[in-house]
Specification:
- This is Ornithine aminotransferase.
- It is an enzyme of class 2 (transferase).
- GO terms for molecular function: identical protein binding; ornithine aminotransferase activity; pyridoxal phosphate binding.
- Pathway: Amino-acid biosynthesis; L-proline biosynthesis; L-glutamate 5-semialdehyde from L-ornithine: step 1/1.
- Belongs to the class-III pyridoxal-phosphate-dependent aminotransferase family.
- With 330 residues, the chain is α/β, with parallel strands linked by helices.
- The chain has two domains: 215 residues, 3-Layer(aba) Sandwich (Aspartate Aminotransferase, domain 2); 102 residues, Aspartate Aminotransferase, domain 1.
- It has ten helices and ten strands.
- α4 packs parallel to α5, α8 packs parallel to α10 and α9 crosses α10.
- The radius of gyration is 21 Å and the shape is globular.
């Protein structure tokens, strides 16, 4: 744990995974593979965007790190789709002896709050056990009470069947200080011997203390339970709004207080989710669109139901104005 930026700790997990693959699994030198999924977001360093399929993250960068990313080994550049267990099965079947790990978000955030099938993680974990592959859960967006569980993977797996490694950041400090962490077992992390890896701000005492206090607040104020209750309330109100939106909102999805509304651009008179977000801003709600038709909503864990209802009403007013609004370039 330390006050280093999140990408540095994603890189720490990658280095630990590679070394584990060589030292513990016995993968031949320079052949270890770390898989990721299509439409992932794990950071912006060169090594991490090597895993990306997002042109905005990759265009005019490179060269990229080999043997990492969402390309299924042994195929003609077939991409490993998120939530499709058959793609993981194919990858493991083709190169299970060389795969050190698979890195997955419990909910894909930048992709638009994409929730996988309920049994997806359980099936991935079973394959990882069968092929001796590490399952890494990137909880940097989903972790620390955001989805109605302390960690999002708890929606899918038992504690006896947990991921081999968990990545945390953002909320772990309550927004007070940049803090990130890699959580794993001693058996896995011990492959990083003294001198083999380090970080200028790793193990920062102040960052660690801030994180401890932030986690205490989450526990003492029952923010996990609050996220579950208020998230359900919020999504039910959004579904009511969708029903009266004349088809503009075609889907509401998410877990806890991490959710999204999906806009049907054929019903908006040529407007996009960006235009809707600008109208929402005028009515007091700040939100970020993604992929031109999805708006992510992640209210504070301490928000009141009254303020959630105000937010829903602001979106309602923006929807009324959207068809006649002037499109804004971005």
């Amino acid at each position: 744990m330390g006050s280093a930026p999140t990408p540095e700790f994603n890189l720490s997990s990658a280095k630990a995974t590679q070394r584990w693959g060589y030292v513990k699994k016995g993968i031949n030198p320079d052949e270890a593979i770390i898989l990721s999924c299509e439409d992932n977001f794990h950071g912006r360093s060169i090594a991490i965007v090597s895993m990306s399929t997002d042109p905005d993250a990759k265009t005019n960068f490179g060269p990229y790190l080999k043997n990492v990313g969402p390309i299924i080994p042994g195929t003609d550049n077939q991409v490993l789709r998120y939530g499709k267990i058959e793609d993981v099965e194919l990858a493991f079947r083709n190169a299970g002896d060389k795969i050190a790990a698979i890195l997955i978000e419990p909910i894909q955030g930048e992709a638009g709050i994409v929730v996988p099938p309920k049994d997806y993680f359980e099936k991935v974990k079973a394959l990882c056990k069968a092929y001796n592959v590490l399952l890494i859960a990137d909880e940097i967006q989903t972790g620390i009470a955001r989805t109605g569980k302390m960690l999002c993977w708890e929606h899918y797996l038992s504690r006896e069947n947990k991921p081999d490694m968990v990545l945390l950041g953002k909320a772990i400090s309550g927004g007070v200080l940049p803090v990130s962490a890699v959580l794993s077992s001693r058996e896995i992390m011990s492959v990083l011997e003294p001198g083999s890896h380090g970080s200028t701000y790793g193990g920062n005492a102040l960052a660690s203390r801030v994180a401890i206090e932030a986690l205490a607040v989450v526990k003492d104020e029952k923010l996990v339970e609050r996220s579950k209750e208020y998230g359900h309330f919020f999504q039910e109100e959004l579904k009511k709004l969708a029903a009266e939106s004349n088809g503009i909102i075609k889907e509401v999805r998410g877990l806890g207080l991490l959710c999204a509304i999906v806009v049907d651009n054929t019903k908006t008179n040529g407007k996009s989710a960006w235009d809707l977000c600008l109208l929402m801003k005028d009515h007091g709600v700040l939100a970020k669109p993604t992929h031109e038709h999805i708006i992510r909503l992640a209210p504070p864990l301490v928000i009141s139901k009254e303020d959630l209802l105000k937010g829903v009403d602001s979106i309602r007013q923006a929807l009324i104005e959207l068809p006649n609004a002037k499109p804004v370039a971005h």
